Every structure is written in C-alpha cells, then in structure tokens.
Amino acid sequence: MCFYFRQSKDALAVANRFKAKFREDIPDSALRISSGQNISPNNSIANTNSLFEFQNNEYSNANKSSLNVNGSSTFEMVNGFSHPKCPVIIDSEPGFIDSYTWGLIPSFAIDSEIQKFTLNARIETIDTKPSFKNSIGNRCLVIADGFYEWKEVSRNGKKFKHKYLIVMPDEQLFAFAGLYSFWNDRTSGNICKTFTILTTEANSVVAAIHSKNRMPVILKQNEESLWLEGAPYSLFANRTTLELVAY
Asked: What is the maximal distance between C-alpha atoms in the chain?
C-alpha cells in the first residue's frame, strides 16, 4: 500500500527529469516556485527551494492525521488522508505537470466521501472494481522520490511501529503508476481532477516491512512512456526486480 510519500526535489529538477513544464494555473496551495516563473526543462533559473509545499485543503479537517497536528501534508510527508493536490503527468498531455487531488472520485459518485477508500488501487483487480474500472484508460504518472511504510516491532516487551523511508538507491525521482478521473461536484459545479496510486505484490525490501505484502507500482524510467501510452497493465505488476533501499 501507499498512503504517504515524499517529493523533496526542486522544480527545475522535476521539470528536467520528466521533460515537462508546469501548468501556469497550478494553485499556490499545491505549488510554490520561488522565482514566480513557470519552470520548464532547461530553464536557466535556479530554484533551490523544494518544489511543493502542501497546505491544508477543504478535506483536511475531516481527515486528521496523527502525523501532523493540522492533518496537512508537507513535501517531506505527503499524507494521502488529507487528500492533498499532488504533481502528476497524464496520458493525454505528457509534456505538462499538473496538480491532481489524491483519492480518485469516480464519475458516478454522489459526493467525495469515497476518496478515503480510493487512495490506492490493486493493479490485479482494477478492471473489475466499480471505483476504478471506468478509469483504466486514464493513465498518469505520480511524481515522488520516496514513500513511507511502518513495521511493527517489539522492544522490552512493548510493541510499536517503526517508520521506514523507501527510496531508489540514489534517491532519484521516480513515478508511481496511477489512474485519474474527472468528477463533477454537483454542489459547487467544479470539475475535480483526482487520482489513485496502483499497488502490487511487494518485493523483498518492502515485504520485510509491510505486513500485508503490498507496495506501490513504481515505474522504471523506460516504462513511464509505455504506461502512459496504454501498454497492458499486467506488464507492470511484477516489481520483484526493482531495486529499493529502506532506512
């Protein structure tokens, strides 16, 4: 599973890595670029601040997290249960980085309550689950450079959970495989852009930590375009050879 991830790289690094530019209409609550300018690949403006500063949003008060007294997220700990806006690249516009809300809302949903159950989607069953089957053709990349899992351990007769940050060997940027959806909020009339992160059977590194033997589908760099172009999703289910480091 994946309910918390990290995205600590600056805007220029993200733009160059994914060869994409940021939407000019990304709200300040999801993105802060210190230069005040749109960042695109090979932009000469250096931005040493972290790319994303996630703030409280309309869902935060209903979804408090013990990790943060405000139930909000930061770039070091993106908390899915506060339904933050996160950086994604969608299949129809691979040259742009946009801001989508974590927690997929299917088009048939009456309200947003379903989001707390759709942070993740099992890649093995996305074509049969009502919440996801209508979105399997909507592919996206969710940009990150790490994710968190907790392992239950015992010490001196007491049980507690130890947090692990799981990253690529050199802590480089990567993309989770995701699905996205557009939902019409009948109350406000707004179109909400939402996404889910796919999960699969854990590899050996994550299995040693996660009691349910699950992990997010992390795409290798040469798989990212294949995912967006619609290659069979079964090709991305096996992550056993993916090299990860936990600490």
From this structure: 56
Per domain, the residue ranges of the chain are 4-246
* Distance set, CA 83 to CA 6, 56, 127, 178 (Å): 14, 9, 24, 15
pTM attached to this predicted model: 0.83
Contact between 85 and 7 under an 8 Å Cβ cutoff? The reply is: no
Q: Tokens 């210190």 belong to which residue?
A: 34
CB 165 within 8 Å of CB 110: no
Phi, psi of 38 (to 5 degrees): -65, 130
- Report the distance separating Cα 183 and Cα 142, nearest Å: 19
Assess whether pLDDT exceeds 50 at residue 33: no
Q: Give the span between the Cα atoms of 99 and 194, in whole angstroms.
A: 9
Three-class SS state of 16: helix
The CATH number assigned to the domain with range 4-246 reads 3.90.1680.10
pLDDT at position 210:
87
Determine the average pLDDT of the residues in 187-210. 95
